From TrEMBL:
Gene3D superfamilies: Spore Coat Polysaccharide Biosynthesis Protein SpsA, Chain A
MF terms in GO: transferase activity
Ranges that cross the membrane: 215-235
Glycosyltransferase 2-like domain: residues covered: 8-120
Coiled-coil region: none
Organism from which the protein derives: Sodaliphilus pleomorphus
Protein name, per record: Glycosyltransferase family 2 protein
Keyword terms of this UniProt record: Membrane, Transferase, Transmembrane, Transmembrane helix
SUPFAM superfamilies associated with the record: Nucleotide-diphospho-sugar transferases
UniProt key word Methyltransferase: no
InterPro entries: Glyco_trans_2-like, Glycosyltransferase_2, Nucleotide-diphossugar_trans
One Pfam family, short name: Glycos_transf_2
Length: 245
């Protein structure tokens, strides 16, 4: 039986206050870790290098955006011979202790994209997050015919070999939505798994989400994806249904 390699990739930008703790918690589960320093201007790189067991580090300047950072992480993972990669955020929002939940789902769906579903109603959850997620969920269903409760989660398990077919065009916050839509269009099963989430109090929160700029880019992306759904996504969905009869 083939042995598969699953590692963790963390994209980070100026999260020096949380990144070391996140990596240590991941190390308690696996030593296969990549951290992508997305042009950090704080002491993130120094903190990573000072860890007892430093992760694989990808670093560059200037900041290019989360989407670009994730792609660099995927490329590094393939160079290391990994078959699958789990992504999680560097701000401490996700619980590394929930990594086994995604792996357990993977054992039943080895070609799927596993997404950690955060749910709503959590303590200190920003109101804007709930509205943005509902907005994103609506458009995702329209573009793919698939219903998901959390299309903005960054806690995911990706099948690397199947990602090679995805032509991602965006490079920032909206890239994760584009990856999800493209995966659905290419017939990759998307499996949600309930995970925990932590939102710090407002005074402690570090976010690089720029409401007007990022929401504007997401809106433009959704317009493009709706067009893509008409000319490619929905026809491919129909083709697969007919083929599998």
């Amino acid at each position: 039986m083939k042995k598969y390699r699953i590692g963790v990739a963390i994209a980070t930008y100026d999260n020096a206050g949380t990144i070391a703790n996140v990596v240590r918690r991941v190390e308690a589960i696996t030593r296969d870790i990549i951290v992508v320093d997305d042009g950090c201007t704080d002491n993130t790189l120094a903190l990573l290098q000072q860890l007892d067991v430093p992760p694989h580090i990808v670093t560059y300047k200037p900041n290019r955006g989360k989407g670009h950072a994730l792609v660099q992480g995927f490329k590094k993972a393939m160079q290391l011979g990994w078959d699958y990669v789990i992504t999680l955020d560097s701000d401490g929002q996700h619980f590394p202790e929930d990594l086994p939940k995604l792996v357990a789902a993977w054992t039943q769906h080895k070609d799927a994209l596993i997404v950690g579903e955060r749910g709503t109603g959590h303590l200190n959850m920003p109101r804007g997050n709930t509205m943005a997620n509902k907005f994103s969920n609506f458009w995702f269903t329209l573009q793919t015919g698939i219903q998901l409760n959390d299309t903005q989660t960054g806690f995911r398990l990706y099948p690397l070999k199947r990602l090679r077919w995805l032509g991602i065009t965006t490079s920032r916050y909206e890239a994760e939505l584009e990856m999800l839509v493209f995966a659905a269009w290419h017939g990759i099963e998307i499996v949600p798994v309930k995970v925990r989430v932590y939102y710090p109090p407002q005074v402690e929160r570090v976010t690089h989400f720029r409401p007007w700029a990022d929401f504007g880019r997401i809106s433009l992306l959704n317009v493009a994806l709706c067009f893509g759904a008409v000319v490619y996504g929905w026809p491919m969905r129909l083709y697969r249904k007919i083929k599998n009869r």
